[in-house]
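RECORD TYPE: inverse folding
INPUT: structure tokens
STRUCTURE:
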């Protein structure tokens, strides 16, 4: 694991961000989940495993698609995220959803019983990404699909570079490392898939415009994402100046949308029925 990843406190960052994360879920995270759900298309009656479920945008979409005769298991390491997912499923009457604790660094071997295994915006938090990817694969049934979505190089352009510059202006020398840079290169996912011995692998990149309804809509995205870590390194006055700088820039440049850059790995397990084991 890189020293940079060691410096990023995933649990603290996303525990603190959980309520804002839930609000942003339908703006950014839900936007990514819609795209993923359309691509992998969980069908009625299927079993879906949603790893690193966060506040549950993909969990909810999967449950709605598989219907009452299907099953969705949502897994996250953070109790705050699990509680939000559980509440959202309950509010919608989605009894086919089960939510449980799980750490992608320590998943038990799977039993190849899920039609679809999904991990959106989570693989890059793993200490050993290839091993975690192999463990995901062990849950996929013969003929099933594994979908992994990570963040690409052009996330939140054109505003994110302005945010970084404003943070550095307040605190020169501030590091702007974020874990998702580990997988922003599609060749990294291809190499990880080979190391994990996945089959039927297709890796692609996608840049999709996401509406930014107002300049003020940018700051909840900061609060509800890993960008929150950079904000919390600043004192309240500096935070306010960074927020104001971003909103003024968005207004001056008439920005009405953000780019959502993603990298997606889709793997299909063969139908030979051979049990899969995680490499030692």
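DESIGNED SEQUENCE:
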């Amino acid at each position: 694991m890189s020293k940079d990843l060691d410096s990023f406190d995933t649990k603290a960052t996303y525990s603190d961000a959980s309520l804002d994360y839930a609000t942003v879920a339908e703006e950014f995270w839900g936007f990514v989940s819609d795209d993923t759900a359309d691509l992998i298309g969980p069908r009625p009656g299927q079993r879906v495993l949603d790893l690193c479920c966060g506040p549950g945008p993909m969990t909810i979409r999967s449950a709605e698609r598989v219907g009452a005769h299907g099953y969705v298991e949502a897994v996250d390491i953070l109790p705050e995220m699990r509680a939000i997912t559980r509440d959202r499923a309950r509010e919608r009457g989605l009894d086919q959803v089960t939510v449980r604790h799980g750490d992608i660094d320590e998943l038990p071997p799977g039993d190849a019983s899920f039609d679809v295994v999904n991990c959106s915006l989570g693989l890059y938090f793993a200490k050993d990404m290839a091993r975690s990817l192999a463990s995901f694969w062990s849950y996929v049934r013969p003929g099933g699909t594994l979908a992994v979505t990570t963040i690409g190089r052009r996330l939140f352009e054109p505003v994110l570079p302005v945010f970084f510059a404003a943070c550095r202006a307040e605190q020169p020398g501030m590091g702007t490392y974020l874990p998702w840079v580990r997988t922003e290169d599609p060749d990294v996912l291809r190499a990880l898939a080979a190391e994990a011995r996945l089959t039927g692998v297709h890796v692609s990149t996608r840049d999709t415009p996401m509406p930014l309804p107002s300049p003020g809509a940018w700051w909840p995205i900061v609060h509800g994402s890993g960008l929150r870590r950079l904000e919390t390194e600043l004192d309240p006055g500096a935070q306010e100046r960074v927020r104001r700088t971003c909103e003024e820039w968005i207004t001056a440049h008439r920005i009405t949308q953000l780019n959502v850059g993603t990298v997606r790995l889709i793997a299909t397990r063969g139908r030979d029925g051979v049990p899969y084991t995680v490499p030692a």
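NOTES: The chain is about 40% helix and 20% strand.
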